[in-house]
Specification:
Layout (H helix, E strand, L loop, with lengths): L1 H63 L2 E7 L4 E4 L8 E3 L17 H11 L6 E7 L5 E10 L5 E9 L1 H50 L5 H32 L7 E4 H18 L2 E6 L7 E4 L1 H17 L4 E13 L2 E10 L33 H11 L5 E4 L5 E11 L11 H4 L10 E5 L3 H13 L3 E5 L2 H10 L4 E4 L8 H10 L11 E5 L6 H7 L4 E4 L4 H19 L1
Parallel strand pairs: 8-10, 14-15, 14-16, 16-17, 17-18
Antiparallel strand pairs: 1-2, 1-6, 3-4, 4-5, 5-6, 7-9, 9-13, 10-11, 11-13, 12-13
Helix pairs in contact: 3-4, 3-9, 4-7, 5-6, 6-7, 10-11
Length: 567
């Protein structure tokens, strides 16, 4: 019995042990789950805390940024805003078509504005507009940006920032631009008027002087007339300097490169300055070594302008000694050469502190009213600009009492000779035409002296000449007479030269052919003038005072072309 009891007790104990072991296993699993959940909960709390900090930071950033941000839901509810309450005094400055409105009434409510915004954003495309505050007059730029929440719900962000100062600055900039353009137009108008009003009488003055000097004169009369001509040419140089500088500043002065003989051109310059140097008891020396190429391609009229100015200054500021012009070869590669031009004198010299200033416009080393040497202070400024335009740089080396050297280096192409051994230029390419008969020219100008000069000059060249004083008289003349060429002034009373030319081109009832050559003969010499003349139907342009050689070149060239088309 005892044995049975012990066996039963053993079996019960064994069963109880198995039951206790199973309960222990379930408890351990629960503990692990709890720990896992606690860990996950802690992680979520950390992430939530981080998200809250980031949200707080973003809100703080939005708060301190000088702009307003408001988020609307699809039903126009404010989800978030950096402003305490919407301000109904902001009104749009644009109408429905995007045009600026002169005045605007305040909006009734913010919800109306947001509703309009959400409806306009239905297509998912943002837009922007400028609003004005009715009371303060401030302006702000407002952007409406469509987006979606994490759940996919449509949202609208209204982002507004102040642009009052930017608009004021834009207005000030426009006003400054308008003022600058007005000033530039006033300057151009002044230069145009000055050019015309001075060049027109200068044309008559120099023209009649040229005719007078071509007559029989005694020595005293010739001396007086040559003195008048010299003074007139000095005045013309001043006018040209002012206009040239204006052209350079406007960027409309162009380099015209042609082939020329360097030694021949500089020899003519030496002849021009020789007597003046002799009068001042100065030794004038021109040096061009044999290795310097003779036929080169460049803008010699501009180079001549620079050299003449430098020689003029050298002679003016040198009381004794030598003025030396030299040209040296810096480099020679293939068909390109670098030449160094130098004008050196033994004159008064220039102080170191003045050597940069002398290249500024209207600046002289001595600007006092009692100064010994006269001038405008424009010459060197123009020379530097011209040299830079041609690809070089004008420099000076000097010391007081030791003279001065002005020098510059320019690039050139090597030129060629034609079959007659002449320099191959546009002028030599077109030989002077042999006209088949006496050509009839109509000269139209409202200045009586200019008309008389042109009449005498052209008749001496073998032309038959008739005169008119304005555009109306010119049209009456071409109605009844056939002319081979018309020389047309621009600014004239009753009808100007441009309108008269247009009517000649448009008419088929005149005796002259509609394509008769018309040459503008005018004192207008500023930006856009040539283009306006050609647009009106004119063939060519010669400026006043008229250069006789240039005028004849233009006339013969056009008459040759006109004869060729008439055949």
């Amino acid at each position: 019995m005892d044995k049975n009891i012990r066996e039963k007790f053993s079996l019960l104990s064994s069963a109880q042990g198995e039951s206790q072991l199973s309960g222990s296993t379930d408890f351990s699993t629960a503990i692990e789950k709890i720990v896992e959940l606690e860990t996950y909960s802690a992680k979520l709390e950390l992430e939530a805390s981080a998200a809250k900090r980031e949200a707080a930071l973003l809100k703080e950033l939005l708060r301190v940024i000088p702009a307003d941000a408001t988020v609307y839901t699809a039903d126009d509810q404010i989800l978030y805003s950096t402003t305490a309450a919407p301000d109904p005094m902001w009104v749009s400055t644009q109408g429905g078509d995007g045009e600026q409105k002169a005045e605007a009434e305040p909006i009734v409510s913010q919800s109306q504005s947001s509703q309009s915004s959400t409806s306009r954003l239905a297509g998912g495309i943002g837009y922007a507009e400028v609003e004005r505050h009715v009371k303060t007059g401030a302006h702000r730029n407002v952007q409406y940006i469509p987006l979606r929440s994490a759940q996919g719900d449509p949202l609208v962000v209204k982002y507004a920032y102040d642009v009052t100062r930017e608009l004021e600055m834009a207005h000030e900039l426009r006003a400054a631009k308008d003022a600058a353009e007005a000033a530039d137009k006033a300057k151009s108008d002044f230069l145009t008027t000055m050019s015309h009003e001075i060049r027109t009488p200068m044309n008559g003055l120099l023209g009649m002087l040229d005719l007078a000097l071509d007559t029989e004169l005694d020595a005293e009369q010739r001396e007086y007339l040559e003195a008048v001509e010299n003074s007139a040419e000095s005045l013309l140089v001043l006018i040209n300097q002012i206009l040239d500088f204006s052209k350079i500043e406007a960027g409309v002065l162009e380099v015209d490169k042609q082939a020329f003989r360097l030694r021949k051109r500089l020899s003519a310059l030496r002849t021009m300055f020789f007597h003046r140097a002799e009068e001042r008891c100065l030794h004038l020396v021109f040096t061009i070594p044999d290795d310097v190429p003779d036929v080169i391609v460049g803008d010699f009229p501009r180079i001549r302008q620079v050299i003449v100015n430098l020689l003029d200054n050298a002679l003016k500021f040198t009381d004794g000694g030598t003025v030396h012009l030299s040209v040296d070869l810096e480099s020679l590669e293939s068909d390109n050469a670098q030449l160094r031009f130098s004008v050196k004198d033994s004159g008064i010299g220039i102080l170191k502190e003045h050597q940069d200033a002398i290249f500024e416009r209207f600046v002289q080393t001595d600007s006092s009213v009692s100064r010994q040497y006269q001038g405008t202070g424009l010459g060197l400024a123009i020379c530097r600009k011209l040299v830079e335009l041609m690809g070089g740089e004008l420099r000076v080396s000097s010391a007081p009492g030791e003279g001065a050297e002005f020098y510059f280096t320019l690039p050139f192409q090597l030129g060629k000779l034609n079959e007659r051994g002449e320099v191959a230029t546009r002028e030599t390419a077109m030989a002077k035409p042999v006209l088949g008969s006496t050509k009839k020219v109509l000269v139209v100008d409202d200045n009586a002296v200019n008309l008389k000069y042109m009449d005498i000059f052209l008749r001496k060249q073998g032309f038959e000449v008739e005169l008119a004083t304005n555009g109306i008289e010119a049209l009456e003349a071409v109605k009844i007479e056939e002319y081979d060429l018309v020389l047309m002034d621009i600014a004239m009373p009753q009808m100007d030269g441009l309108e008269a030319t247009r009517r000649i081109r448009e008419s088929t009832s005149f005796c002259v052919r509609p394509d008769v050559p018309v040459v503008a003969m005018t004192a207008h010499a500023l930006k856009g003038d040539r283009e306006a003349f050609l647009a009106a139907g004119m063939n060519e342009y010669v400026g006043k005072p008229i250069n006789p050689d240039n005028l004849l070149r233009v006339l013969f060239g056009l008459l040759q072309e006109f004869d060729a088309t008439a055949k």
